[in-house]
Amino acid sequence: MRVLYIVQHFSGPSGTGSSRAYEHARRLVVAGHSVTLLCGRTDRGSDSDESEARAAGIDVRRAPTVYAQGMSYTRRLVVFGQYMRWAVREGRSIDRPDVVLASSTPLTVGEIGRQVARHHNVPFVFEVRDLWPEVANSLGALRTPILRWMAHRMARRVYLAADRVIALSPDMAGVIATWGVDAARITVVPNASDVDLFGTPETQEQRADMRSRLGWSDLFVALHAGAMGRANGLEYLLEAGAWLDRQGERGVRIALLGDGALRSRLAERIMVQGIRSVEIHPPVSRLEVPGWFAAADVAVVTVLDRPFLAMNSANKFFDALASGRPVLLNYAGWQTDLVREAGAGLTVDFRDPSSLARSLLALRDDPARCASMARAARSLAEERFDRSKLARDVENVLASAVLDASVARSGR
Predict the structure, then answer these.
(1) Same domain, yes or no, for 96 and 22?
(2) Is residue 358 domain-resident?
(3) Are 349 and 296 within one domain?
(4) Count of domains for the chain
(5) Is the dihedral of CA 342, 322, 299, 15 positive or negative?
(6) Which of these, 157, 177, 315, 392, is most buried using a 10 Å CB contact count?
(7) Which CA distances in Å does 290 have to 218, 301, 389, 411?
(8) Do 346 and 301 meet the contact criterion of CB atoms below 8 Å apart?
(9) Strand partners, 164
(10) 224: CATH
(11) Cα(57)–Cα(343) distance, rounded to whole angstroms?
């Protein structure tokens, strides 16, 4: 197959963002397909993202527009529009592909895929990594009635035009179906665990060295590794840390690793309020993240208490599983059900940050239980969320869309 892959936010293995697009595109090339990637730029991107993709055999076309997580909602919408105009022109100008795969967010990426697929008269596969406009509405990003109307209209147009829709969680799939998409056209392919990168003997050997270097040798450490935006609800972790401080507890540390629109605000609050139990670290490359998980004892994933956010498929969740670290979540949904059934983690009360703090203390004081959860987490990663298997699922969705289009053209 000749695959045109459209994804605005792209990162290679040396980057600090999600590597889903890179890993899927790379595996498609290994499987014998050709991939042309239309992507944007980020303020934290580098030439290595592009060079790594090209080295993997991916034809990269990169827009001149630059996106930054610290942008205002208004500025983000402007950049989304700029990328959309560039990508539609670029997509129409390339040689005819066999299939177009557009991976959101933002929703405008889906509109690009729709227009380009229609231009070439080829199947259109829409991958939904975050529910738009639902999440944008819940966060107040679409602030005027006209913006909400336009987003709703675009979403309906994109969903109804897609020959296949890939949802990153079963909860997302349920919402997508309400747009009138036949369930037979929806396939759930969640984010994945890189089991060959995380939880290896090499990363475990880094544990003592990193813990010593970071001052964690005598601490029980909970790691949040990922975006620091409004949707992540990281004030919850600062409140949990403040509770630990008030109890006089010195043996537990909550570490935040990453970047995002609220990073500077979080760092300032930690410093001004003197929250000793929380520390914040700058983002590291994807290749360095396994060492951080190896140095930690548990992982924590949080979201703001808003509709639709708990339906996410956060990379940090699957990284924790691959690393063999118990996962603590402050929200309900499919991930919560998963860790409860497997015994791979705990759910804490999103209304009460002290419930997270108390859970951390309980796990610290029960090493056997913590170790059991760690083994269950790694088993989940290997058995259900291995990257190579899930990438084949995406390949199968693309192939089935191409086959159906070929059958329809032949009149059979």
Answers:
(1) yes
(2) yes
(3) yes
(4) 2
(5) negative
(6) 315
(7) 20, 16, 20, 51
(8) no
(9) 125
(10) 3.40.50.2000
(11) 40
Q: What is the pLDDT of residues 271-304, one digit of tens each?
A: 999 999 999 999 999 999 999 999 999 999 999 9
Six token digits for residue 199: 């939880």
What are φ and ψ of residue 364, in 5° steps? -60, -40
- Measure the CA–CA gap between 53 and 27, rounded to whole angstroms: 11
63 and 89 together in one domain: yes
Give the model's pLDDT for residue 73: 77
- The residue range of the domain holding 355 is 201-384
Query: Residue 396 falls within a domain, yes or no?
Result: yes
SS (H, E, C) the chain: CEEEEECCCCCCCCCCCCCHHHHHHHHHHHCCCEEEEEEEEECCCCHHHHHHHHHCCCEEEEEEEEECCCCCHHHHHHHHHHHHHHHHHHHHHCCCCCEEEEEECCHHHHHHHHHHHHHHCCCEEEEECCCCCHHHHHCCCCCCHHHHHHHHHHHHHHHHHCCEEEECCHHHHHHHHCCCCCHHHEEECCCCECCCCCCCHHHHHHHHHHHHHHCCCCCEEEEEECCCCHHHCCHHHHHHHHHHHHCCCCCEEEEEECCCCCHHHHHHHHHHHCCCCEEEECCCCCCCHHHHHHHCCEEEECCCCCCCHHHCCCHHHHHHHHHCCCEEECCCCHHHHHHHHHCCEEECCCCCHHHHHHHHHHHHCCHHHHHHHHHHHHHHHHHHCEHHHHHHHHHHHHHHHHHHHHHHHHCC
> Phi, psi (5° rounding) for residue 7?
-150, 120
Residue 410 lies in a domain: no
Q: Do 124 and 239 reside in the same domain of the chain?
A: no
Q: What's the pTM?
A: 0.93
Q: Are residues 392 and 376 in the same domain?
A: no
Alpha-carbon radius of gyration of the chain: 21
- In a shared domain, residues 65 and 117: yes
Both tokens of 284, joined, read 């590291």
pLDDT tens across 224-282, in order?
Answer: 999 999 999 999 999 999 999 999 999 999 999 999 889 999 999 999 999 999 999 99
Q: Kindly state whether residue 322 falls inside one of the protein's structural domains.
A: yes
Same structural domain for residues 373 and 254? yes
251 residue type, one letter:
G
Model pLDDT for residues 343-394, shown as the tens digit of each residue: 999 999 999 999 999 999 999 999 999 999 999 999 999 999 999 999 999 9
